[in-house]
Write a structure and sequence with these properties.
208 residues; alpha/beta; six-stranded mixed sheet; 7 helices; elongated
Length: 208
């Protein structure tokens, strides 16, 4: 698959790049996509939820009323779950929701996500992007030139660039990742993936 390389003004530079078929032209594996996205979201969960159970409630141990003669049902403890302010039955406890996936499956999921974007023609190749200092206005101008100012986008760089990352941080709906940080969730969340020209070789190394 060949794509034109665009510059920061959104114009064709006259150069073309060939995207690797074993990454961008495979049949997407939906189950691998599902598992990788599920793992990403599970790992983000804090798991700090907690409800007090019966043995953790601090209440008086005095009997509520006498056992016989009142016509009421027997009440043994105010800590009982049926009492107002009592303990919770099988309440949530702190836990780790994360789980592991093997490297080959995760790589397959990332290839499948990129292949899906390529099949939908939602991939743009941009010439190498460099910024000396953070500048949100310049970053927004680049997205506007590409027609992506109102869309969720993901910019993939060859190497981490703090200035580019900081420039995008205040712009809602746009994420910036290096090729080595690329994950399936970020690709699937974006409507359009922008691949920096210098990220292509790195992606081929990481995803194979």
């Amino acid at each position: 698959m060949e794509l034109a390389v665009l510059n920061k003004e959104g114009k064709d530079t006259g150069r073309k790049v060939t995207l690797a078929d074993d990454i961008f032209a495979i049949e997407p594996n939906e189950h691998a996509l599902y598992l990788d996205v599920k793992q990403h979201l599970a790992n983000k969960r804090q798991g700090t939820h907690k409800a007090k159970e019966r043995d953790e409630i601090s209440r008086t141990t005095k009997k509520f009323f006498r056992q016989k003669g009142t016509g009421n049902a027997r009440v043994g403890s105010l800590k009982s779950p049926v009492q107002r302010g009592g303990g919770t039955v099988f309440g949530p406890r702190p836990r780790n929701y994360g789980f592991k996936l093997n490297k080959k499956l995760k790589a397959l999921a990332r290839r499948s996500a990129l292949a899906q974007k390529a099949a939908d023609q939602n991939i743009i190749v941009l010439e190498a992007l460099q910024m000396d200092k953070p500048n949100t206005k310049s970053y927004v101008q680049i997205l506007s030139a590409l027609g992506l100012q109102d869309k969720k986008s993901l910019l993939v760089l060859g190497e981490s660039n703090k200035a580019v990352y900081l420039s995008s941080r205040n712009f809602k709906g746009s994420d910036v990742l290096s090729a080595s940080e690329l994950n399936t969730y970020a690709v699937m969340k974006a409507q359009t993936v922008i691949l920096s020209e210098d990220s292509l070789e790195k992606l081929e190394t990481v995803l194979r």
